[in-house]
Structures are given as C-alpha cells and as structure tokens.
# Entry
Amino acid sequence: MVHTPRRHALGLIGALVASGAASAVLPASAQTASSFPSRPIKLIVPHAPGGNSDTFGRILAQKLGDRIGQQVVVENRPGAGGTLGSAMVSKSPPDGYTLVVADNGTHAIAPTLYGAKLGYDVFKDFTPITLAATFPTVIMVHPSVPAQNAKEFVALAKSQPGKLTYSSAGTGNGSHLTVELFRVAAGGLDMVHVPYKGGAPAVQALLAGEVQLSSVSVNTALPHIQAGKVRALGMASMKRSPALPDVPTFAENGIPFEADSWLAIMGPPGIPADVAAKLNQEIAATLREPETQERLAKLGLVVVASPQSGLTDVLQRDVPKWGKAVKDSGAVSD
# Structure
C-alpha cells in the first residue's frame, strides 16, 4: 500500500496522540481545558527572592501544584521594578503554561512611570487570570512627632510647610506614591520626600528618626508598631486591617484615599478562554483553601481570588489613579 502525504501526516498525528505527545505540536488555540495542564506550569516572579511577591508566589505554587497534579515552578526574573519579567511573560506562548505574579507596581504604576519605554501594554498584552490578594498599607510616624493621629499630623504639617520629611523605597515606588496620595487627599501638604534604595533602608531611616514619616505594608510595620518604635497614623485602605484593628483608616478621619497594594496572576495575551477560565477556577480554589489563607494572612495578605473580570476592573480603576499620583509626585512630567 502506498502512503500519500496526507495519509502519512494523519498517521503521524495518530501516533503522536497514542504516545501522548500531541500537545507538544498542537498550537495554543488547540489546547483545551479538558487536557490542561499536561505538564509543569512556570510562574514568573518579576522581583528578587524574599519579597512579598516571591513568598506569595512560592506558597501559591506549592498549593496549586498539589491541587492540579502538576508541578508549578517559580522563576525569579527581577529588574526594572518588575517590568522585565512582566515583559517576558507578555511575549510568551499563549498556552497557559507561563504566568506572572503581577502587582500594582508592574501593572498600575509602571505605565505612567515608564511611559513609552515600558515593554508592554497592561490591557492588550496580558490575559487577566485573577486578582489574588491585597495587602493593606499603613502610614506611620516616628515617636518624636507630636501628632497622635492623622488629623493632628495634617494640622502639624500645615503649620510647618516644607519641614516634615518622609522616606520611601525610591522615587515612583508604591511607598512614595502612597504618601503622595495622602498628601493630596489631605489638602496638598508641603512635605519633603527622601528616597532610599529599597524598603529596608527607608524603614530604618524612620526608626532612626532621620525622617518623620513613611508608608509600608502592614506585615512590615507590625513588629515596629508593637515595639513602640513607630506610631501608626492610619490605614491607607478602605477598611481596617485585622492585624491592626485599633488603627482607623484615613477615610475615618476625613481624609478619603485608598492605596492598598495587590498581587494578581496574569498570562500572555491569547490564552484560550476555557484554559484561562480553568486557571482562574483552580487558582481561586487554591487561594481559598483555609491553610493557604492562613499562611498568607501571616504575611498581611488578604485573599481576594476574583473572577477574571474583577482583575480587569481593578486595572481600569488603578492605572489612572496611580498614574495621576506619579505625575503629581514629579516622578515624571506630563
């Protein structure tokens, strides 16, 4: 019997299916949720090991891998505030096997901070999977500052324009822009920004009294607050933190603004809809597991596990909000 090219091709595909290798040659559009995942998933953390994104990513990877029966491998790709790793994922095959731990820095602040130099469009170059979790931000002052609460601090700052200083992990960083949102919401406080090379030296500057104010995530602030080394002015959140239930939000003190940081899971554009939906389902279920929530709560993270549309809604809200803060801060010009 003579094999025609067409018959030969069909026979080859049949052999591949029989051997379980068909998925290796099928295009992303042919991937289906029923067979996904059939191999390990790569989870890119676009920051250095040890930070909130990295710790979150490793907890999620372990628990998700247990749930889906495939290994989830964490790979750190730091650089340029997380934008290098994010750009890499945006150009990855759209098969659902490469994901990124996105955050408000990489996907809400970066578009304005980097402008045309940013290697991706946060709306067009990613498939949203889920808004995974948020971590509340607290603004705190050195004990030497006489203000005991947010209202007293605002009055103090207005009485001493250009005198009070605040630290941040760097110009354009979330810690910088959180204070910028506070400054504007409080009526345009005249304060001096002192940027440092990273979050640890920025906090150390506050502890040493080199600056009067700083903003950090709750898990970073908590031990210093409990030790009496700093005083919490308020939560830059819509509601109080379970970790600091006695600390009111700024909105409760008549200074309405919200600067919660968030972590999300995203993939490259073009992931098949059913695969993206399955990823959302499995990741959300993993995040809602009591053990996962307990481990994340110790980091100060509050699980959200939103539908895909929930992440899109947050991006549409936060890109202009943080973009305005970037411009108001002077980190970039119009």
In short: DSSP finds eleven helices and eleven strands in the chain. Residues 142 and 212 are 5 Å apart (CA to CA). Residues 1-26 have pLDDT under 50 and may be disordered.
